[in-house]
Amino acid sequence: MRLPARRLLPATALTAASALLTGCFAGAESSADAGADGKRIRVAMMQPPRSGLSPLSDDAFKLSRWSAAETLVKLDKEGDAQPALATKWRQSGRSWTFEIRPGVTFHDGTELTAETVVNSLTRAATASPKPRILDGVELTAKADGDKVTVTTATEDPLVPQRLSSPQLSILAAKAYRGKTVDPVGAGTGPFELTKVNGTASASLDRYEDYWGEKAKAPGIDVKFVPDGTARAAALRSGEADIVESIPVSQAAVLDQDLITEVPMPRTNTLYLNTGKGAFKDASLRAAAREAIDAEAIVKGVYEGRADVAEGLLGPALPWAAELRGPVTRAAEAGKPNGEAITIGTYTDRSEMPEVAATLQQQLQKAGFKVKLDVREYTNIESDALSGRFDAFVLSRATVLDSGDPAAYLYSDFATDGTFNLSQFADKGVDKALKKASETKVGDARRKAIIEAEAAVLTQDAAVPMLHERVIQGDAAGVVDAAHDPRERELVTVDTYVK
Questions:
Q1: What is the pTM for the complete model shown?
Q2: Signal sequence: where (predicted)?
């Protein structure tokens, strides 16, 4: 059966990808230790660094996925906290005391101590802006021998999960110079970040003095490839061993044995600007929601490789559907009368421009006049955060930071949330978000989270459209690459290339 022409990967794209990637990977086999006990792993990643690989930004997840930087705590598959650089911990009211793992060295040879842990946590807690995981959280850290006591302004049941966020990675003292954070040679992971070439590439070597199991691969060579077609071509051509985020439009034409598809805690959402413009009117927000046909987007853009959203939280969190009930909307849908709106989105995820184009058609049919503004994410994020758009299409990870969606909900929908694309402010929602954040981990917390989700949806501050599935490409020779829905792991100590 002949595949539709739009799905086929042109030879020109394959050639372009080869040219794009060869410069980074050509020297991989001659790098340190290559050939001695295995091949270096060539990785094609989607988004280039946004903040010079500072762990205080989303770049932290790159350091985590390369196993270069580590945190006090890690999460298991269920989202429960497990030991990492801390071996155990206990709570006493507003304070949590963590015992620091002995015998750990940073990549510069200095020792991991309670003081270095306090230094990293303090820099994160006092940063401006704070890492998302600390939205609404006042946190201080104090050293006492081989222990670190972390204290919050109010009792916080989620402290261990917060400290698992890659944005709270522990780095050597040398990483912190002035207002910048440089992770090169400053982590504790099984791979040492040795070189960063701006937004083009990065190199890592195995750290021979790692405190845990020695990495099986001698190193990692990373190329940042925002173009999804080029990433898919890199897998087909053999230019890359592991490829992040294969576009759904290319997945069908790749060898299905080389791709893995996993439901993700990631929601494709249309954020509506409630602060100004057309969508300050709640009835027009309701009209936009009713005009959107998410099922058509799933079938037409994602070719069925996604799930229609019933709420902000998707099937990667099965308890959400079990607890969710009907949502009563605050306003009835009004009748658009040619109101002009601008929708922003970005090219880094190849589906986003097509999603925006489909939304443009659906909203224009409903009576809006719609203009699109599509750029690379690094060039559009600041405008989105400052409220320059009437609406913004975003693929948003809902448990990226802590394994718990309360932090995401607070960041995106609290009045003082640092990622409040909707410019949203509602006392009732703030109250619900505060309750969810303060409830102890377990069933009661999950119920409070769903109540907070309902409060947001009642106001139509955002329209959840679909829940994505991650499609990762692993070449035939790749062994034990991580397939992590939370996007925290990719290359681990067990990953190697035959």
A1: 0.74
A2: 1-28
